[in-house]
Amino acid sequence: MKNYIEETANYLKEKGFDLPEVGIILGTGLGQLINHLEIIKEVSYNHIPYFPTATVEFHKGKLIFGKLEGKKVIVMQGRFHIYEGYTLQDVTYPVRIMNQLGIKALLVSNAAGAINLNFKKGELMLIEDHINLQGSSPLAFKGVGSLGVRFADMSQPYDAQINATIETIAKNHNITLHKGVYASVVGPQLETRAEYRMLKIIGADAVGMSTVPEIIVANHLGLKAAAVSVLTDECDPEHLEPVNIDEIIAMAQKAEPDMITIFKELIKQL
Ligand code: HPA
C-alpha cells in the first residue's frame, strides 16, 4: 500500500496540493463549509489514482485544497462508507493520503442519531470516545506494520486539547454542545428498537455509520483528531417512529451554521 500512497500523494502534489496543515472530512448535510473556503484546487475522486471509485450516488465526491481562516486545508467533500460496499482500507485511504501530504490534524463531522435522550435533534455533540461496532478494523490487513504500529493505542483517540478548544468556542458562541461516546455501525439499515436499547446499555450517546475508521487511522498515523456529530434524530426505543431521511437531512442542515462556526474558529486557533 505504501507505493500506492506515495503515487496518489505525488499526483495531488503535482496538481498543487501544497502542504495542507489540516484535513477536514465533511459529513452528511454539512457541505456548506465549502462556501467559506478560498478554493485553490479541486480534484474529483474519480480522477485520483488509487482512490476508491466513487459510486453513482457520490459522483460529486471531490478533494479540495484551499484556505480557510488563513490556514491551508484539504477538504473531503463526500466520504466513503462501508455500507456502500467499500472495504475499511478504502474508506480510510484518503486519511493516509492527507497524512502523506503533510496534515497535522484531522477534523471530522458526521450526522448521528441521539441515543442519550437528554440530547435533542438539531443539537451538536463533541465526540469524546467511540465504540467500534463495524465488525472489523481498518488496520486489519497484511502489511499494516509497514505503515505504523499494528497494535495502535486507543487510550485517547480524540485530542484533549482540540476538544477543550472546541468546547470554549461553543460556549463563546452560545452553541449547545454535548459531549459523548459515538458508536459506529455498518448500516445502511437503521437500528431496531432492541439495538437502540443495547447501544444505550453499552454506553453510547450517539450512533452513526462513519467516522470511527477514519479516527482509528488518524491515530495510527499519529495525527491529532477531533470529531463533531450533528444529532439528526432521537433514537428512543420506547417511542420509535419510522425513519424519515428527509427529516434527518433537514436536521443536519439546521445545525450547519453552528458546525461551520465551530470549524472555522477552530481552524483559526489551531
Ligand atoms: N442511526 C440512527 N440514526 C441516525 C444515524 C444512524 O446511524 N445516522 C443519523 N441518524
TrEMBL record:
Q: Name one Pfam family in it.
A: PNP_UDP_1
Annotated keywords:
Glycosyltransferase, Transferase
- InterPro entries recorded: Nucleoside_phosphorylase_d, Nucleoside_phosphorylase_sf, Pur_Nuc_Pase_Ino/Guo-sp, Purine_phosphorylase
Pathway(s) where this gene product acts:
Purine metabolism; purine nucleoside salvage
Q: Where is the Nucleoside phosphorylase domain?
A: 22-268
Enzyme Commission number(s) of this protein: 2.4.2.1
Q: Which SUPFAM superfamilies match?
A: Purine and uridine phosphorylases
* Top EC class of this enzyme: transferase
* Record keyword Acetylation present: no
What's an example GO cellular component term for this entry?
cytoplasm
Provide the GO MF annotations for this entry: purine-nucleoside phosphorylase activity
What GO biological process, any one, is recorded here?
A: nucleoside metabolic process
Q: What does this protein do?
A: The purine nucleoside phosphorylases catalyze the phosphorolytic breakdown of the N-glycosidic bond in the beta-(deoxy)ribonucleoside molecules, with the formation of the corresponding free purine bases and pentose-1-phosphate.
NCBIfam families given for it? PNPH, PNPH-PUNA-XAPA, PRK08202.1
- Which family does the UniProt entry place this protein in? Belongs to the PNP/MTAP phosphorylase family.
PANTHER family assigned to the protein according to its UniProt record, in alphabetical order: METHYLTHIOADENOSINE/PURINE NUCLEOSIDE PHOSPHORYLASE, PURINE NUCLEOSIDE PHOSPHORYLASE-RELATED
Protein's UniProt name:
Purine nucleoside phosphorylase
